[in-house]
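Hi team,

Below is the intake form for Mitogen-activated protein kinase kinase kinase from Sesamum radiatum. Please confirm the fields before the structure is written into the shared record.

FORM ID: S-0412
PROTEIN: Mitogen-activated protein kinase kinase kinase
ORGANISM: Sesamum radiatum
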Amino acid sequence: MDWRGHTIGHGASATVSTATCRWTGDTFAVKSAELSRSKSLRSEQRILSSLNSPHVIGYKGCGVSLENGTAMYNLMIEYAPDGTLVDEIRRRGGRLDETTIGHYTCGILKGLEYLHSRGIVHCDIKGSNILLSQEDVKIADFGCAKAADEASIGGTPMFMAPEVARGEEQSFAADIWALGCTILRCPLGRPRGLMNRPHFTGLRFRARCLGFRRSCPT
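The structure came back. Fields below:
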C-alpha cells in the first residue's frame, strides 16, 4: 500500500500506522486488522463515526484494502503527533506537575461528559488511550466502547471499577473510576516491582473484588 507510512503502535487486535492522503497531503492515522478478524475494529468505526467532539479523536473514514493477498479492514482517524499520555509522562521524567495534570484531567472529563451524554461508555480509559494534540487531550481507542444499556464488560483489569471486576455492570461510573486510576499515575510515575506490573496488579485486583483469599505474596 503506497500511502501507508510507518507503524506507530500495536493494539490487541489491530496495528496503527501513519498514512497520507494522496489528494491533500494530510497525515492521518490508520488502524488495520485482517478483515476476518476485524469485528472489534468495525464496532469502533460504528461508534466513532457518530461522534464529533474536540476531546474525542476524529473519525476520517474506513475501507478495505488488499495487501500481500490479504484483505485488510482500515479505520482512518485523526493523527495525534504528540503521542499518548503515557508517552508524555515518560518525556517529563516519569511524572507530571499538578498544573499539567489538572489541564489533562479537565480535557478528559469534557470528553467523557460528551460520550456519556450520547449514551456511550468508553470502558477502557487509561493513559495509553489518551492522545495529545497541540497540548490538548483526545480520548481514543473505542474497541471496548458500548452503549450504556448493553450488558457486555471489557477493558483493562488494573483500571476496572470493583463492580466491573466482579462482572456485575459497566456504567458511566466505571469510566470515572478508570479516569481516577489514570490520573493517579501521573504524579507517581510507573509502578515498580514485579507484583506491581499491570498483569499482576490486574489479577490481584480482580481476585480481591471477587472475594478470593489472598494467597499470593506481595
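SUMMARY LINE: Helices lie at 39-48, 85-91, 98-117, 162-165, 172-188, 198-209.

Thanks, M.
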